[in-house]
Amino acid sequence: MTSIRIVVSTDERYAMPTAAAVRSIIDTSAPGEALDVVVLASDLTEHTRQRLRRSWNASNCTVIFTPVELTRFAGLPTTSAVGAQVTTGVYARLLLGELLPPGWDRVIYLDCDTITRHPLTDLWSTDLHGRLLGAVRDDYVPTLASPYGLPTWQQDGLDPALPYFNSGVLLIDLGAWRRERVGEHAIAYLLTHRDDIRLFDQDALNAVAAGRWRQLDTVWNVTGYWRKPERRTGAHRDILTTARIRHFAGHGKPWQPQPLDVDDGHLFFDSLARTDWATHQHQVPAAGRESTCAG
């Protein structure tokens, strides 16, 4: 049986969307496809872990909870130069090289605000051609020198035209990640540039992997930026309906009061209905409202 290895990171606050995210992966998996899911758990209670296990109960899915010691991230920025705020748990994936089983040579990382709509088989089998990772170019921040791009590209001597990726969906060569000490270098970058950071570990990963990542097809990480009609032209005309992974990036998550990015928020609630949070009630506003989120 083919086994696809996946990692997500969560805490008590984001347990509910994480339940939906992984449930969507299970429900869209191909026949005969096994899923090994590692949850990087920051301050999850045992009660919440059991709820997640019940939510993901499936014969083809093995779940491992791996605790993350947040003191490892002391000194890393939690407020960005553009006013965004996070908890230190956002940095958990920088420890992938040491926290994941040593026998794993590649992994798919997914943010907890994603909904998978297609088997991950094709993504998993993508040839990275020796690159550190595969990712989708960020539609809102297409290059290192774009507004909200990498703030230190010039002082770091990087080509301003190099593409900048959204880190919500990553296919990672763990062998290369470990050899190149990606996580360690990313943490060092964050400490050095803590006053300049805009998008936290996404900035750091773009700095460390600049020019050394493979660009994936946009369908693997479709954000709300594609809601603007002027973006949906040519090959991208039907991008929202053909998305293989829908990423509710930025502000206005479907589960939040008065969400901004809600036209296809039902995708989230359809998956949530098959979890231990099935009774969570939220009224999704009518379709046709355009997202105004950024980030």
Give the helix/strand layout.
Layout: E1 2-11, H1 15-28, E2 33-42, H2 46-55, E3 61-67, H3 96-99, E4 106-110, E5 114-116, H4 121-124, E6 133-137, E7 165-173, H5 174-179, H6 182-192, H7 200-208, E8 213-215, H8 239-242, E9 245-247, H9 266-272
Parallel strand pairs: 1-2, 1-4, 2-3, 6-8
Antiparallel strand pairs: 4-7, 5-9, 6-7
Helix pairs in contact: 1-9, 6-7
Query: What is the CATH superfamily of the largest domain?
Result: Spore Coat Polysaccharide Biosynthesis Protein SpsA, Chain A
Just name the CATH architecture of the largest domain. Alpha-Beta Complex
Q: Rough shape?
A: globular
pLDDT average, as an integer?
90
Main sheet makeup:
7 strands, mixed
Query: Which structural category do the helix and sheet elements fall into?
Result: alpha/beta
Instruction: Kindly report the CATH topology of the largest domain.
Output: Spore Coat Polysaccharide Biosynthesis Protein SpsA, Chain A
What Rg do the Cα atoms give? 18 Å
Structural domain tally = 2
| N-end to C-end Cα span | 38 Å
Q: Tell me the number of strands.
A: 9
Describe the structure using short key phrases.
alpha/beta, 7-stranded mixed β-sheet, Spore Coat Polysaccharide Biosynthesis Protein SpsA, Chain A
Overall description:
This protein has 295 residues and is of the alpha/beta class. The chain has two domains: 2-218, Spore Coat Polysaccharide Biosynthesis Protein SpsA, Chain A (Alpha-Beta Complex); 224-263, no CATH class. It has helices spanning 15-28, 46-55, 96-99, 121-124, 174-179, 182-192, 200-208, 239-242, 266-272; strands at residues 2-11, 33-42, 61-67, 106-110, 114-116, 133-137, 165-173, 213-215, 245-247. The strands form two sheets. A seven-stranded mixed β-sheet has the order 3-2-1-4-7-6-8, with helices on both faces. Helix 1 (15-28) packs across helix 9 (266-272) and helix 6 (182-192) packs across helix 7. The chain is globular, with a radius of gyration of 18 Å.
